[in-house]
Amino acid sequence: MNKLLTLFMGLLLMSISFQSFSQMLVAYVCPPCNNQCDTLSFDKPGVCTHCGMPLVLKNESKDKLSPTRKKIAFYLQDGIEILDFAGPLEVFTYAGFDVFTVSKTKAPIKAQGLLTVTPDYSIQDAPKADILAFFGGSSNAPASDPDVIKWVQSQQNIEHYFSVCTGAFVLGEAGLLKGKTATTFHSSLDNLEKSYPETKVLKNVRFVDNGNLITTAGISAGIDGALHLVAKLNGFDAARKTAYYMEYDKWTPGEGLILAEYNPYKALANVDNLKLYTGTYEFNNGSKIQIKVSEREKGLYAIVRDRNYPLFFTKENTFTDANGKETITFIRDRRNRITGYTLSQDPKVFHKLN
């Protein structure tokens, strides 16, 4: 009996040790953001507690794309405009997408004649993507290259096509703009309209969403289009958190033409309802906190010591911070007036002052 008990305990300890060892092998890290958290590791998935970026597996690389995250192929050509692709790259990376670069060959390309970029893949060995993205700056090269256009047309089960600036011409040559509404760089609008008469070309719009195809105006407008695509796929709060992280303060949600059936901004909290939460409240150590509404962003901000912290609506009277770690719950009296709030990490009631 004692021998059996000893054997059982030994097997149990071995099992626990193996599980502990296995857990040690799994580590999550913050994607490089040039902060101190670049050197930290975490034992669970989630967001970085320092910068708020989504954590990734330590050993994940572009050669081992995540099976769960959306994969976006950025087609890059020699002479490409830097901000055309760098802006959306920042958006999609922070929002948790897998982005990889593709060109006709793996030879390094020069962006605007300044920045050397070595593509991850050529059109011969690029992995399957969920989203194909094209950008301006010498875009006539891929648009007039039969091999590139054939590659675009051969891609199966693409969920979304995305273009910035004159990258729309690549989509046009592939026949993807036929019967669609599109936009492009301001000085190329007439050329786009002339080249693709079956496409309705719009001026003075940041982006056009046809459903599975999004085109944007030039250069910086790609950031707006990318944030819109994040809002479509991951929800408005994910896009707002991304804009906050990037300090893209001028973002106006939905500032484009949305022809798609799904509009991620229709379900947003009514701004007039959000105004009910505004005012000055008590805060820690006798200080005060102001709650204000941003009509442009359609959201609340908590202002603490002259710093703005966005609050994200979860349900009536309840909001979270950008990292989702702190929950603020507003309290109402019998007359339904807001009188204060509580924090998830502090049960104390902080009263509304005015």
Automatic annotation (TrEMBL):
Record key words, sorted: Signal
Signal peptide: 1-22
GO BP: any one term: regulation of DNA-templated transcription
Pfam family, any one: DJ-1_PfpI
SUPFAM superfamilies in the cross-refs: Class I glutamine amidotransferase-like (SSF52317)
UniProt keyword Oxidoreductase, yes or no: no
InterPro entries attached to this UniProt entry: Class_I_gatase-like (IPR029062), DJ-1/PfpI (IPR002818), INH-QAR (IPR052158)
Domain DJ-1/PfpI: residue ranges: 70-231
Domain of life: Bacteria
Name of the protein this chain belongs to: DJ-1/PfpI family protein
